[in-house]
Amino acid sequence: MSSTAIPSPEPEPTRRAVIKAGAAIAALPAAPSRTCPDQAGKPVKGPGRVPLTVNGVTYERLLEPRVSLLDALRESIGLTGTKKGCDRGECGACTVLVDGRRIKSCLTLAIMQQDRDITTVEGLARGEELHPVQRAFIDQDGLQCGFCTPGQIMSAVACTAEGHAGDDAEVREWMSGNLCRCSCYPNIVAAVRQAAGELS
Ligand code: FES
Ligand code: FES
Asked: Residues in domain 2Fe-2S ferredoxin-type (predicted)?
């Protein structure tokens, strides 16, 4: 019967080897400063005071680089109209417009959106006059609990502006990133079609 050789244990590192490894790490070049390119290639700042322009007003807030735009809006600026549903890009409750394009604010960092034009549901009405999309949601009874409604409305504003509200099927397709647990979908589609008719 052949005997199996038992591998000899790894030699313990000597004190000298540990000190040499530490010195080598210390000699590495310093990490680059905390700036990183945003989507357009411009440098962004952080951590520190981050300017965010929301509904035409510029707010400067002390934000860590990890803070999402959604949390900055709700927790730091106090605009709670934008809702947090899933917080991972699945429900659309957090939809806002950035430079006119709809985005899910839970999926983007606040520092990436400085120097951009952010619009939330609070920025749609003109005084007492509701935006046509807001009015259409009321006319068509496009909500029950209302939790998804700010996101639906912001998405609908972009959907109509994009010209993606030509028929019911098109509206369903281009609003498909916004979920409604109350299942108001037929009324939401009707609201978007009504608003598109008024805005065209
Ligand atoms: S909270 Fe952002 S997609 Fe659900
Ligand atoms: S109205 Fe309740 S989730 Fe849409």
From this structure: 48-124
For residues 61 and 97, give the distance between their C-alpha atoms in angstroms, rounded to a whole number. Answer: 20
Is 149:140 a contact under the CB 8 Å cutoff? no
Top mutation candidate among 68, 71, 87, 148 for ligand 1, by most atoms within 8 Å of CB: 87
pLDDT top residue among 17 and 154: 154
Is the model's pTM score more than 0.70?
A: yes
Helix (H, G, I), strand (E, B) or coil at 95: strand
Binding pocket residue ranges, ligand 2, CB within 6 Å: 143-149, 180-182, 184
Tokens found for residue 63: 């934000």
CA of 91 to the centre of ligand 1 (A): 5
Contacts for 45 with CB less than 8 Å, ≥ 6 apart: 35, 111, 114
Average of pLDDT values for 71-91? 98
pLDDT, the chain, mean: 87
Judged against a pLDDT cut of 60, whether residue 8 lies above it is answered with: no
Token digits of residue 50: 């981050």
- Neighbouring-strand partners of residue 97: 102, 119
